[in-house]
Each structure stands twice: as C-alpha cells, then as structure tokens.
Amino acid sequence: MKLAGLKSIENAHDESVWTATWVPATESRSALLLTGSLDETVKLWKPDDLILHHTNSGHCLGVVSVAAHPSGHFAASASLDSFVRVFDVDTNNTISTLEAPPSEVWQMCFDPKGTILAVAGGGSASVKLWDTATWTLVATLSIPRPEAPKPSDKNSSKKFVLSVAWSPDGKRVACGSMDGTISVFDVGRAKFLHHLEGHFMPVRTLAYSPTDPHLLFSASDDAHVHMYDAEGKTLIGAMSGHASWVLSLDVSPNGAAIATGSSDRTVRLWDIGMRAAVQTMTNHTDQVWGVTFGPAGGPGRLASVSDDKSISLYDYS
Amino acid sequence: MKRAARGNLLVVLRKQFPKASKNKNKNNRKHSLSVCLYGSEDELRRLQDSLEAKPEDPSLRFDLGVLLWNEDNNISKEKAAEQFVAAARLNQQNGAVFRYLGHYYSRFSEDPPRALKCYQRALSLDPTDSDCGEALCDLLDDQGKETLEVSVCRDASDKSPRAFWAFRRLGYLLVHFQKWSEAVQSLQHAIRGYPTCADLWETLGLAYHRLGRFTAAIKSYGRAIELESTRVFALVESGNIYLMLASFKKGIEQFRQALEISPQCVSANYGLASGLLGLAKEFICLGAFRWGATLLEEASKVAKETTILAANLSCVWKLHGDIQLTYAKCYPWVEEIQGLELTAEAFISSIISWKRICHLAALSARCSYQRALLLAPWQANIYTDIAISSDLVYSFAECPSYDLNAWQPPEKMALGALLLETENYEFWVALGYLSTHNALKQHALIRGLHLDVSLAVAWAYLGKLYRKKDEKQLARQAFDCSRSIDPSLALPWAGMAADFHAGDPAADEAFESCLRAVQILPLAEFQIGLAKLAVVSGHLSSPQVFGAIMQAVECTPHYPESHNLKGLVWEARFDYLSAAASYKLARFGVTDSSSSVSKSQIRDITINLARSLSKAGNFLDAVQECENLKKEGLLDAEGLQIYAFSLWKLGQNNMALSVAKNFPASVSSMEHISAAASVSLICRLLYCISGLDSAINSILKMPKELFQNSRISFIVSAINALDRSNRLESVVSSSRYFLKSPKDMSGMHFLIALGSSLGFQSGVAHLRKALHMYPNSGLLRNLLGYLLLSGEEWNDSHLATRCCCGDTSDDLIHGLKSTYEILGAGAVACYAISNNNPKFSFPTCTYQCLNEPGAIQQLQKCLRREPWNQSVRYLLILNLLQKAREERFPRNICIMLERLICVALSDECYSKANVSCNYQKFQLLLCASELSLQCGNQNDCANSATNASSITLPDNYLFFAHLLLCRAYASCGDLSNVQKEYVRCLELKTNCHIGWICLKIIESQFGLQNDLNLSELNFNGCLMEGKNLPNMWMAVFNLVQGLISVWKQDFLTAEEFLRRACTLASAESCLQLCHGATCLELARQWCDSQFLSLAIRSLKRAREASAIPLPFISALLAQAEGSLGSKEKWENNLRHEWFTWPPEMRPAELFFQMHLLARQSTAGSDSSNVECCQSPQRWVVRAIHTNPSCVRYWKVLRKLDG
C-alpha cells in the first residue's frame, strides 16, 4: 500500500482548514470533498482536481466539524459556537439548524444507516443523538461519573467529550474524552457499557474499522494511535511514530490501513497488519487537522487538511 | 483568565527542561590518588617484588591493584580486581579498595548486586567519598530504585556534614519529588561544598520559586546565570518571576537574553511576548496608545513566531489572541494631515483604514482564540475570550446584522464558559457585560454577586444597567457599593459623574469624579464624558481635559462628538485654528456616519466652526459657513451674530447691517444671555458702521425691554459716554438698574468716569466718589491714578501713586494702564522720590510723597515676575536714574543702570517704528547719555545723545537731545560745538518750560549771548501757550535769572528777580530762602538794615513754608537777628539750626557757631540747652576736627586755650 500525491491546493481557505470529510456519490454526481475552516466557511471540492464546487457561509465562528450523510444528499457542519447546520449538498438549502449550548458540539458522525447523527457533546460529558428525519434530540448518552458530582467540582471538564464514532453495524457508539478515556455505549438500550483505558491525554479522533465491528482506532495528544477491541475492553495495539499530538485519523474502506494527521505536520499511513507506519507525507507546513479516505467503491483517495490553509489529495493504493 | 495559560506553560516548561536532577552528576571522576611517579613498568616490577617479600601487606596489594587498574586493557583490570579482593580480605577498613571493587563489578563484570555491596561498604567506611557515592547512586538510578537512592544519600549526609556530594544528590532528588522546603536545606548545604556549581544554584532557585519565595529565587537564578551565562532555564524562570511581580522590563530583558542563547526556546518566546503585552498594557493604562501599539506589534510578531514553533500549544494562541485584542482596542488613529487642509475624503478614508486595522486585529484575535479553543476545548476561559473578541469584531463591523431573537455569538460563547464552570463569578460578569438583553444582564450580574458579594465589577455593571433603565436610585446604590468595595475601579466613578444630569452632585463634583475615572482608566467614553462635564462646569481649559480629549480622539475618531469636544477644548485654549480643524473633522464625521444624526447636531458643529474661524480671523470662511447654514435654514441667533460680525470684519457693512436687522426678530425667542449678546452686537455694529448719531437713533427706536441687562448697559453707556448731548440718558439710566454685582458696578463707574474725563476734573471727581463706594476696586483706582497722572497741571502725581497703592501682583485688573505702570510713572513724575534719608537732599516739596523707595522695589518685583516686560524695565530705569541723580550718581548705581539700559536697548521691541517705542528708546538713550556725562565719559555721552537726536520724534523732544549735547560739549570745553548745539536748540524749540530754563543757564554760563535774547522770548511764548501754573514757572525762571545775577555778583539785580519770584510763588521755601540769603548779602555789602528786615521776613516765610525744617534758614535768621541786636533771638535761632541738621552732616561752621553760643550761655543759667553739653573748647575742637583747614578755628582755639 502506498500514497501518491495527486493535487495540493494552497490557500484553499482564508484561514486554517480544520476538518474534512467525503460526501458519497449520488446518482447525479460523483463524490465530493467537504472541508470546514476557521474562516467560517464550508467548501465543497470536486476531485481529483479539487475544483471548488461551492462555498457555504453563515457560521459565526470557525467550523470544527463536518459530517456527511451516507446517502450523499445532505451533510452537517458545526462551528465553535455550537450551531449545527444541516444542508442539502447539491442546492445548499438549509435543512435544519441544531442549536446546542456552546462547548457542546465537537466531532459529529452519521450512523451507517443514516438515521441518527451522533454529536460529541464536549462539556456536557455526553454524546447527543439527533434523529435525522425530525431533527430532534432523541437521546443523550452520558458518561457516568466516578462519584456523585459536587456542585463545586471543577473537574467536570475532565470528561470533556471530543470525539465520537459509530460501529459499522450501528449498534455501538464510542466517544473519547479529554482525560484519555474512551467510553462505549449500547445505542439500542441507550446504555453505557464500559471504558477503554490507555491514553492519558485528550482523544481527538475515534474511528471503527469498517470491516470489523470490534476494532476501534483512537488518536490522542499523547502522540500514539491505539487499537482496541471495543467489545472486549482490551488494548490490542499501540502505534507510535508521531512526534507530537495525533489530531486526526481515518480507516481505509478496506480496513487494511489507517491514515493519521498530526501536530508534527505529517500525514502517516499505517499498515494495520504490520502495526507500523509505512509512509510519511511531509508536504504540509503546519499541523494536520483532518485526514479522510474516499468512500468505498470509488478510486482510493485520501485527503488531508491543515493549518497551513491547504488541502492535499493523494492516491491510495 | 490567565490561569489556564499558566498551567499549560508549566507543562511546556517541564517538557523543555527535563527534571533538573538528572544528567547533572556526570562529574569528572577523580582517579586514584596514587599517581605513578615512576614509569609504570618500573613501578609494577618494584611493587611485585615487594609483594613477594611481604605477601600479607594489604597496602602493597592495593597499590599494585591501582597500578594495574589504570592500565587500559581488560586483562589488567581482572588482575587488578584480584589484587583488590586480596587487599580487602587482608584489610577490611580501606574504603578505596571497595570502591575500586565496586567500579569493577559495575563496569566490567556486570554484577550490579555485588557492585552495590562493595559501594555500600566503601561508603560506610568513608561517607565523604563522592566518587563512590555518585557511582552508587547512578547504579541505583539505573535500576529505578529512587527511594533507595534517597536513603543512601540521607545516610551519608547524616554521617558526615562534609559529604557534600550526598547533599547535592539529595537536593536534586527532593526537587524531583517536589519536596521543595527539604530540598532547599539540602541544596543550601551542598552549595557550601560546591559554591560555583551553577546546577545547584539553578535548582535552589527552582525550589525557592515553587515555595513562592520570589526574591530569593531571583537571587539564586541570578547566581546561576552569573556562573554560567548560558543558563536558559534560569533566565526564563527568573523572567517569569519578574512578569509575575509585574516588573515587565526586567522580565523582557531576561527573556531576550535567553533567546540570544536559544532562539527556538518556546517558553522564552512566550515570556517575551507576554512581557511585552504586560508592558504595553501598562502604557495603555497611562494613555500612551501609540507606544503601547508599537510594543504590541512586536509582541504579536514574537507570539506569531512562537505559534510556528509550537503550533499545538493552546496558551500560545491565547497569548496571541490577547495581544491582538489589546491591539485592536488601543490602536490609535493619527491625524495624518494637520490643519484645515484635510478633505472629507481623506478624513473618511483615514477613518476607514484605521477601522480596518482595528477590525483585522480583532478578527485575528478571535481566530487565535478559536485555535486555542480547538486545541483545548475544555478551557472555559477561552470561550469568554472568544465572546469578548466577537463583541469587538461586531463593534467594528460595518453593519452589524443579527436577529434580535436569536442568541448572539458573544452572548452564546459567554454561556459556553459558564456551562463548563458554573461557579465562576467572572464568567457571570462577562455574560452580564456581553449580553444584550437587560433581563439576562441583570440575572447574570446578580448570579455573580451571589457567588461573591464583594464583586465590585458586578456592582458597577449593575449600576450601569440600572442607569440605562432609568432607575437612578438603584444605580446610585450600586455604584456606591462598587466604589466602596474597590475605589480603584473606574466605572463607578464615571457612573457617579454621569448621574450629574439628575442634578444631584454639583457640576464640579461630577467633574472631579469623572476625572478620577479617566485617570484610573483612559477609556474614550469616560474621556468624552469628562469633556462634556468640563463644558458644563467650566473646566474646558484644564490640561487634564485637554489630554483626555486628545486620547479620546485617538481612540474614537469615527465619533463626531469627540472631534467637536476637542474643538471646544482648543477654543478654550485660544487656539482657534486647531479648533476649526477639529470642528471640520467633526462635521466630516457627522456627514459620514449616515442619517442617524440630527440636523441640529450638524448645525451646532457648523456654528462652532464658524465661530472659531471668525475668532481665528478667517472671516471669509466663517461667512461661507454661515451662508451654507442659511441656505439650509439652520442659521439661529448665534449663527446670525457670527455672520454679521464676520461680514462687518470683511468690510461688507451693508450686508452686516441687513443681517443685524434680523436679530430683534430672533431675540424674543432666545434665552436671556444670548439675547443680550445679540443686542450688544447690534449696538456695536451700528456704532462702528453708521456712526454715533445713527446708532443713538436706532437705540432710541428699539424697545426698552431689550436693554434690561447688565452687558447691554455697558455698551449703551459706552456709546452714551461718547455723546456730548446725552441723548441716551433715559435708556442708560433704566438699563443701569440691572447692574447687580459690585464688579459690574465698579466697571460702570469706570465707564462713566471715562466718559466724563473728556472733561478731566469731572472724571476725577466722579472717580473719587465712586472709590468711596468701592474702595477695593482696582479698576477704578488705576483709572483714577491714570487720570491724575495725565492731568495737564503736574500737580497730582503724588496722589496718583498714593491712590493705586494696592498690590501690583494683581493681574486680573484690566484697565487702561496696569497698577505698576501708574506706580512707576507717578514715582518718576515726583521729583523728590526716594529717600527719607536727608543725607542727599532736603525736599522742599509741600506734597508729601509717601511711597518713596517702595516704587523701585515694586517695579523690581514686577520685573522679576515678568522679565520680558520691557515697559516695567523702562520704568525701573527711569526711577533708578532719579534715585541716582538724587544721590549724586554714586558709582555702583551708575554701573547697574548702564547695564540695565544696555539690556533694555537690546530689546527688539525698540527696533519697531512706533511712536511710543521711539519715545522710550529716546528716553533710554538720554538716560545713558546723562549717566556717561556724570561719570565723566564725554565721548559716550555725545554718542548717545547724537543717537537720540537721530530718532524720528517731534522737535520738542529732540530739543532735549541737543540740550544734552550742549552740556556734553560744555563739560569738555568745546565751545564752538556748544554754540552749534545751542543754536540747534533754539531752532528746534520746545514747549517744555524746563528746557528753556536749562538753556538759559547754559547760555549764561558760557556767554552764549544772542542779540535777541531768544531763550527768554521762547520761554515766554511757552508760558503763553501752556495753561498750567504760569506763576510757578515764571517764579522758577525768575529764580534762575536771579541765580545768574548772583553768579555775576550783581546782587541788586538778583534781589529784584528773586523778589519777583517770591511774589509769584510765596509758598515756596526755596525761593524765600534764596531771597533771604541775597538780602543778607546785600545787607552785609551795603550795611543797610532795610535789607536785613527784608531778609528776616523772607527767611521767616521760608521756615513756615517748609514741610521739614530746612538747614541754613535758622542760621541765616540768627545772623540777621543778631545783626539787628537781638541776642535772644540769635541764640534761639542758632539752637534751632542745630536740630535741623542730620547728625552726620553737621558742618564745621555749625560747631563753631555752637561754641559761640556755649560761650554766651556759660555766663547764663539754663544748662539744659544743647550748647551746654560740652565746653566751648570742645565745640571748637569738633569744628576743627570736621574742617581742619580753617585758620579761624585754630585761632579761636588758641585764644581759648590761652
């Protein structure tokens, strides 16, 4: 497996690009790359030449997270002031705006069937689930606190939830917290199952392997990538190599590789079988906030976005 | 809100500087003491030989072992170990053996347990063995047995206080375990052993730092830096301490030093940026925005570089945000083009570019905060930062458009912080500040107060909120509360000041309160408020207001009110051009800032502009402005006045009058004061343009109600004063009814006196009466003095000086002449000014001039206060010349006067061709000339007089220059020139009697006869012309003629002249004395008793007329009476004579006369008389003592002795 640079756009946004995801192809068009930035815009790009398809504005603060519905018809973007805008990808019509108290929207993720949007609820120490048909809040999955919370407890931010991921079967949701713990929930019963230990710094991104519902990957500020058996509560692998925080992570559609982006300004490709980095891309000049693999079915693509305002597209094979 | 940032910084620090205890103990190991003195081969052989001899000697074995150990191969190490083992077996007490064994086991045979035992053994034998101790500790450290390490060190340190290595190791370990206070002890002890170990000092500094003993920490770090200048850690940490102690400059210095060594050091960069930020904030708090902004620019650069070095440090981004936010708040607007040339486009574009810079900075701040937040989303304070920066961004944005019902971003982000930390009252206050909903505001602030009731900020914001909701009472209470909790908070002070409009505190108090707010925090809102209060309370010209409004304009250039107020402040400082420029800017601002401003505001600013333009003398532009207003129909009463005034000044009299005609229409609607102003202006315009009569007619036509004001009364009275026929009498008298204050009243009397002083006497009379009513009015006193001085009969100058005896320091009186001028001029005018000391003269003036030398002192005081005032200097010179003349030109006064005159003449004001200046210069030159003459310097005298004669002045002044030239040539005997100047004098003529009299004297002394006796003719002509005191002058002329006859020994003619003089001025004691003396001489010559009686009559008159007893009169009288045979009268008169002399001046003859008297009275009885105090001999001796050259005395003495 290897990555080959295809295209890189300098100054794709006016400010740092913070998040990226792929919008799956629909009947009428191919897959698109969706990026969100500190400049308060969300942009849609056409691969492989990264032609700007559309620019959505309207957020009042930087865009921290974008998520695309599996159908490819609509997507959601969230800014720092915790407004989630759900919009039609093709027409840019606003479908809904979800409002949460600030600090309570971070990573977002649609479930594989596309019926629920899970939102990492930051300071609320929970994951919020929104129904994608009615756009109402259907459940709040809270991380149980070790002891009864005292009113003067200022440590509530320890469980600050930064990241969220759906298992490929849609039965489990995992979320990562600031103190390095990962919590796993049973969605059907809306119940907390267990913690996964191992990191000691904030877990910025979580991703399940698309092929194996047990396998969960996590990226953390402690510069490590962990591989967990999410059901069996065990750490089955830890991969080191980044010199600084691992900010983003994505698993390839075939489940054989993961890509990570880091504060050390590199993008790494890891072979899961070998549990080692096989390639390091150093084309970014600032920390890499997002990496995302192209959707299954299309050509193997990886996109990365960075604080240096650029977007890079690689061929993955 | 710095808390989180600091926390993060610590993490960074720890990363940057791994714990101090490690890597420190790589000391160069000292090798064994037995250094080979011989070649090692020889030594080896020698030792082996002796060992064979004594196999049981452990020291030999040890030495051999050491020798082998030092060889550089493994085999010999093995052999050495064998020797050491044997030595140890033989002697258990040698620590060195065990140490070597330890080294062997740890390094070569890889047997740590055995090595440990050997080392421990060695240490127990010699705890001060640092080599061994360090090796042991390194071994333990490698195995991770830190507690064991500690106990080893403790053992060693307990056993021997000289085990410095143990103290050092222990100190490092304790620091590693964060047991700071214990560490300090160990480290201090260790430092005694290794005083130059920079590591130890640095670690000690760290321990002190963590204990919060900052000064001690700074000293320790400083010592470490002294020992090794490349200690980045010590530099950075001491810099941090300095920042914490708010001595930013020192901190910045430390960080810069650290960066020189290690330019990539994140914490040093961070420290430098935050130090610069702190320093900039200090400056901004002082109001030095530009300075602060420059520092912030540098800080921002440093912070930006730091974010490149460490992009994932939230605290660095937050710092960058802080810097940019401060920059956005403080970046000052600068007027690029000064003055009136600035066009509207240039102004607006400069405002836009200023705004853009601020906006960009605010945006950049918000971006940086967002990055910080993304890196550490759990840090609540960053949410507040974003909220605050968003608020600022929206305040700079062109059109803030958001839905009023939705949460606004600033508000929402403030809530974000609260969600994370509900109990943080600061966040509640921030929410209260940022929210736009009053209810939420109030709720948030009260929640904040719930958490901490002594939260002054919350109270202050609450007060502000209540004020906005118009609940004054609550607002006051809240502000009061806040102020009493924290008097150093600016807002409550400003809030209290703003309540002024409620009418509670007096304007002054409000101003003071607002001033305090501005001094605490130079915020544009407060500063504008201060300027507004200054307008109300009349403090506009105070420098604090000036400074404040300057800063306000720097910070809010887009706000027209600030420019307008700046204009008012300039106007109050009499800088009308700058004021006009400011008003212009204000108007650009108003027209720029869309339609929200009312027309009245534009009008007010334009009128301000027109007024300052006309005050600055730019009437054309002022008229232009007024016309523009008129076109829009916005010209109100004040505008009309300015319009009319400016038109008049431009010479468009008809236009001005037609504008002025509109006044009365607008007057009715006006306030009292402005109505008065406009009526006054009409009257003034009418008088100046159409003349007195038409003005009077118009005034008579106007309704009487208009004149019911003190100010108008002044104008009308002034016009009336110019009118001889008193047509306005009724208007004037009715309007005078409205004069209220004593100041106004005395002013009016001043005016009346001026009016009537067209006839001098009536003016003086009126003023005398008025002074009775207002004895304190300096104005009236000065005028009276002035009138008296300028009276044509120079009779009253002594009164002039007396009537303005008030202190000259009072500058507030603006009359025609200032007090000191009257004083000085009066003193010069009185011939006999100065001294009570009759050493120099015996004044015969019947007017007793009382102020005397006071005038000179007062003038000196004035000159000291205003060294630039040339008229004071001039008057002082004249007074001093009088004094010098009176004291017969003593050398010291002459020198001083010469210098004074030299200074005065160098004054550039005398280069102007102005009559009064020329006159002063003329006078000064004459003074100089006179001085030179008196000092015997004829050349200088002639030069000065010639200079004076070349000045363009009327002939009757120049006369005196030539007179002086006459005297100058006369004194050096140049008769031909004397004749020439004399003729010149006759040609020029003067209307001054004294001039002719002097000329007469010169004429007679040098025999400059002319056929026609021109001088006498001229004098008589002069008498005819002048009205003042012809008798007096005639008498003086007769006196001079008499004296001339005396010089010619023609006593009969002299007597005739003098008799004529006496009849003309019988009250002059001088004349009588002269006449008496002449008669006595005649009597002596002719032996005629008729002359004797004439003499007695004149002398008696002289004695009666003189104010103080004059000498000679009594002596002469005694002579005359004695000659007539009356011995008693002779005695009495002689005794009287004795007392008329001041003691030190009594002449010899007086003593001699007293001897005669004494001889007479020795026979007599009364011994209380003066002459009886000593014998006649003694009297003669005293006479001789005074004048030893007189033979007569000697003869008498001989006779008496004989």
TrEMBL record, chain A:
Question: What does the UniProt keyword field contain?
Answer: Repeat, WD repeat
Q: Where are the transmembrane segments?
A: none
Please indicate which superkingdom the organism of origin belongs to: Eukaryota
Iron as UniProt keyword:
no
Q: Where are the WD repeats?
A: 10-46, 56-97, 154-195, 196-238, 239-280, 281-317
Query: Can you list the GO cellular component terms from the UniProt entry?
Result: Cdc73/Paf1 complex
InterPro entries in the record: SKI8, WD40/YVTN_repeat-like_dom_sf, WD40_PAC1, WD40_repeat_CS, WD40_repeat_dom_sf, WD40_rpt
Q: What is this protein called?
A: Anaphase-promoting complex subunit 4 WD40 domain-containing protein
The species is: Ficus carica (Common fig)
TrEMBL record, chain B:
Question: Which keywords, in A-to-Z order, does the entry hold?
Answer: Repeat, TPR repeat
Q: Name one GO biological process term.
A: RNA catabolic process
- Classification via InterPro entries: Ski3/TTC37, TPR-like_helical_dom_sf, TPR_rpt
Q: Which GO terms describe its cellular component?
A: Ski complex
**Which Pfam families does the UniProt record give?**
TPR_16 (PF13432)
Q: Where are the TPR repeats?
A: 198-231, 232-265, 456-489
Instruction: Tell me the domain of life.
Output: Eukaryota
Q: What is this protein called?
A: Tetratricopeptide repeat protein SKI3
Q: Which organism is it from?
A: Ficus carica (Common fig)
